[in-house]
Every structure is written in structure tokens, then in C-alpha cells.
Design a protein that fits this description.
Length: 58
């Protein structure tokens, strides 16, 4: 098992009162197919985006 990781942060912009479920699902599917594993998600009201944090072994 590798102890080294590659990391990626993907920002998904959102607008108030809009459902971003489909856009987030597309990003999750796309990066999952490339071997990325979702680590955490942060939703920021100040930057109006959802940040997806991924990792995968090097």
C-alpha cells in the first residue's frame, strides 16, 4: 500500500436557491472514474462555492 498521496480540490460554484445536486454528482462521477477518492466537502457562504477534496495514491 502506498503512503504517498496526490490531492485535488474542485470548486463547484453555486447560486442561492439553486439545487446543485446534479452538478456535484457529475463532478463526483467524473473524478471517481479517474481514480479519485472523495475525502471531504466544504460549503462556503462567503465564496459561494462547494469545495470537494479528493485524494488518490501516487
Amino acid at each position: 500500500m502506498s503512503n504517498r498521496w496526490q490531492h485535488k480540490i474542485v470548486a463547484v460554484a453555486y447560486k442561492l436557491f439553486n439545487d446543485q445536486t446534479e452538478r456535484v454528482q457529475q463532478e463526483l462521477d467524473k473524478h471517481g472514474q479517474q481514480g479519485w477518492e472523495l475525502v471531504t466537502v466544504i460549503q462556503s457562504s462567503t465564496t459561494h462555492e462547494i469545495r470537494l477534496f479528493f485524494k488518490k495514491p501516487v
